[in-house]
Structure formats: C-alpha cells, structure tokens
Specification:
This protein has six helices and 18 strands. By secondary structure, it is α+β, with helices and mostly antiparallel strands. It has two domains: 230 residues, Zn peptidases (Aminopeptidase, 3-Layer(aba) Sandwich), CATH 3.40.630.10; 60 residues, OB fold (Dihydrolipoamide Acetyltransferase, E2P). Strands 1, 2, 3, 4, 5, 6, 7, 8, 9, 10, 11, 13, 16 and 18 form a 14-stranded mixed beta sheet that branches. The chain has a four-stranded antiparallel beta sheet with strand order 15-14-12-17, with no helix packed on it. Helix 1 packs across helix 6. The longest helix is centred in the last third of the chain and has 25 residues. The protein is globular.
Length: 336
Amino acid sequence: MSKIKLDVIIKQSGNRTDGFINYGQKADLSFYQIPVIIVEGGKPGKTLLVDGAMHGDETEGSEAIIKLAAELEGKEFAGTFVGVPALNMEAFTIISRGTLTDGFNLNRVFPGRKDQYLTHYLAAHYMERVVTFVDAVINFHGGGDVLHLEPLCAYIPFDGPEDTAAKVSYEMAQAFNVKYLWSQQNLPFAGITSLEYKKAFNIPTIIPEVGSQCSRFVNRDRDIDICYNGIKNVMAYFEMIPPTGQKPVEDKIHIELNYLHARNGGLMKLCKRENEFFEAGETLCVIDDLFGNRVETLNAPWPGVVIGYWSVPVIHPGDWCSLAGKIIDAPACYKK
C-alpha cells in the first residue's frame, strides 16, 4: 500500500485512487491543492513518481500521465505508479510558467521552505508528503509558450564512480529513449528537483523536456506519445512492466545544455535551427530594432548543436535566445 496519504479522495476504484494533497488554506477557506493519481500494481516493486506542469504551460507530460494511468487501472504490475498531472495547479490554471500568487518559478526554489512564499511552501510540502516516499522520479518539462525544444532527457551528473543515484538516473535517461541526453552540469541556476531530491533523499530523477506551443500545432500527439512511451520504458527498466519492445533511438548525443541570452531587445531571426550543428564563431541568431538596424549578433562560443530557441519574433534583453548543446562524452564514471 502506498505511503502517500491524500487529504481528499475524489475517486477510488480497484487499484486506482484519485485525490488531492492540500498545502495551504486560502482566504475563502478553500485550499491550494496537488492532484495525485495512485495506481498500485499488486506485486512488489518500485514506486515511480511522474509529475507534469511544474511550469503551467508545459503540459505534454501531464497528458501522458493521464493516458498511462487509465491504461494501468485494473492491471497487475510490479510496484506503484504515482502520477501528478499538474504539480503547480496555480500556474496550470493560468497557463503560466510561474505561480499566480507570488510569481516564483517552482523549479528554482527546491527544497523549499515552509516559512516563505507559497511556491517555496509547495516545494517543501511536496518533498515531505510525496517525494520522500518514492524510489525514482520523472519530472516532465518542455518549451512552454515561448521556447521551442527538441526532445531531450536530463540526468544527474556523477559525483564519482560510486554515485548510485547518478548511475540509475543515467540509465533511466537512456531507457526514456530520446536522441539528446543532457548532463545537468554547470547549470546557471539552482533549486531544481533532480539535484535537490538527490541531496535530500539520494533519489534518482530524470527531467525530460518534450514539446512546446509551436510544436503543438503539428506534433501534439507525437510529443505526448514520446512522454507516454518514455514513462513505460522507465517502468520496464525498473521491471515494473515487461519490456515495451520500442526500438531504441540510435546514435544518442550527450550534451551540456547552455542557455544563451540576448543582451538587446527587438525582432529576432534564427540563423541556425533545431538539430543543426555549428562551429565556434558561427552566427546562431541576429536581433534587429524597429528601424531595421542590427543591434545584436549572437555567435556560438564553441562547437555544438541547436537544441532549442526563443520561438516568438519579439525578444527582450535577458531572454534565452538560443539553447545550445555543447557535445560531451558519455559519463566517464559510468559502469554497467
């Protein structure tokens, strides 16, 4: 039986329970809530947590969670599937990257604090009520409303050859089965799930980045299926379900993802698009002002491949204009 306890149960049918965890009472006496789906397989095995919409405009993972939970309902498998289709409901309801109440980015404030803002409280409460009781985590993200991203899967960087959480995280990323594998090293920000879950509980986590608003026009179903199949592949890796039989992606590319920022605002034009390789010094994008004057040329600082970019024409100073993958070797510490 799952150790995760729900404050509100809205449906219980067979091996599936749907409900909410409350994390703060509002002025109108209602509660901020985390929606949770628990499907118990009936046989001993891992507890896998899969969550989506940590950023409210990133919903491909959410739809995959809903789809897979329906498939697992009434079925026997090993372990427990815990699905959280919209971790930040506040952001999800307004289709926003940040929380409505305080504006914070949830994936920058972990492990959270209960004596600070609502988003910090949500992070701390989630770790206390959910994360501590699971064996592994898939934390879905994507490009949201303004970025385009090619599907990739992030794993925890190794701290040494005996780093078991990093080893399992890397194997989960391999199993998830997308082309780009992102080692989360040299990040320009802190407070993210994967690193903080490892620090607090030594739990392996992967962060797949799949889908975006511009991709949804033609690839919504494809991107949801990438997420859905990725979850099943990870479940198969943990022997929760039989092997999926999905053909492995060949020639996976290991990257360190770098966020290249615009220093000026204006109209941005791409010179290198997704999956295009570049050399050091090649132009990735340019920015012109409203009079047609070139105000910025962004050149590649090193060789790599374009993973994503700002997907709307108007860009502001400080915005991410290109998400560039520096190609790296597979982890030297990794041993099967």
